[in-house]
Amino acid sequence: MSSVMQQGELVAFNEGKLKFAADWILPFMPRKMLLKASRKAMEKADKEAICRR
């Protein structure tokens, strides 16, 4: 599990493409696929945060 998630921190994205995907594409994707993609994105962000330390 991501350390960001364990600490209860919120991660915000402020990108137009991400907002478009969230508004128009994500509602039509299967829940299992969304959870898998979300987990991968958080793991990647966690690894990058660890490398920056």
How many H/I helices? 3
Chain-averaged pLDDT: 76
Structural class determined from secondary elements: mainly alpha
Radius of gyration: 13 Å
Tell me the overall shape: globular
Q: Count every beta strand, where a strand is a DSSP E run of 2 or more residues.
A: 0
What level of helicity do the residues show?
Answer: 55-70%
User: Strand content of the residues, in percent?
Assistant: under 5%
Secondary-structure element order, N to C: HHH
Low-confidence stretches: none
- Give the end-to-end Cα distance, rounded to a whole number of Å: 18 Å
Please give the largest β-sheet.
none
Structure notes:
Helices cover 70% and strands 0% of the residues. The chain is built from three helices and no strands. The chain has helices spanning 3-7, 16-25, 31-52. The radius of gyration is 13 Å and the shape is globular. The chain starts with a helix and ends with a helix.
Compact summary:
The protein has helices at residues 3-7, 16-25, 31-52.
Write the layout of secondary structure elements.
Elements: H1 3-7, H2 16-25, H3 31-52
Keywords:
single chain, 53 residues, mainly alpha, globular
